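subagent[fold] <- orchestrator: predict structure for attached chain, return tokens only, no commentary.
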Amino acid sequence: MHNVAAVDEALERTAEAISSSVGAVFDDLEKVAATVSGVADRVADVPRRSAYAFLKQDLAAFINRHSALIVGAGIAYAPGSLPEAPLWLEWWRAAQAGGEPRWVTHDLNPESLNYYDYTTREWFAVTTANGSPLAVGPYVDIGGINVNIITLCVPAATPQGTHVLGCDLTLAKLEGVFLRALQLQDPTVVLLGPTGRVIASNNARIASGTLFVEEDMQRVDRSVDVSSGSPARLPWKLITLRT
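subagent[fold] -> orchestrator:
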């Protein structure tokens, strides 16, 4: 028999730890986005890429500051917003041993077999359509590091269109926050995304990325919103399962 009060306390503690950790990443990413919007507003003509040269340094500092959670960050520009190219994406991956983040190349040539049309990706399309922060995933980042990730996105509105600032969290790093805060082996506790994908679990039989089906949901005993104050930004739940 579980100690109900202890389980409830663990769920609330874990929700707060996750909301606080991920919320801090969102907050800093929104500061960078605000700077991007400010640059576009101050430039009389259509800004060129050089107007955003500061982003390399700012995003490197952002990646290093949040290295306990994220593995990369960047910006996807609104289509047609830059004079130099119809589409442009700048992304950096965290380097090993605290070095400088490295540039990640993407094939932006529509005629290429490896064309990466970021405008059709959920993280870009939904963020620009809604104009609000978004957590997308988990999904496998096949074109990047081939692991399960979650992409946090924030919009940067400009007269030329809405750019998207984003960063990638690996589930392994987020699972560390989850387990350190939870400190429970029993009952089974699952951090669940809005599409029913498992983000983290304290049960080795329920792997990250697993899709919960209706049968699984019928076993839910308790459910706690991770970010009750901002559910749209972070629509995750902590649930316990009956054995």
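orchestrator: received. Logging for downstream: Residues 4-42 form the longest helix (39 residues). The helical segments are 4-42, 54-65, 122-130, 171-182, 214-217.
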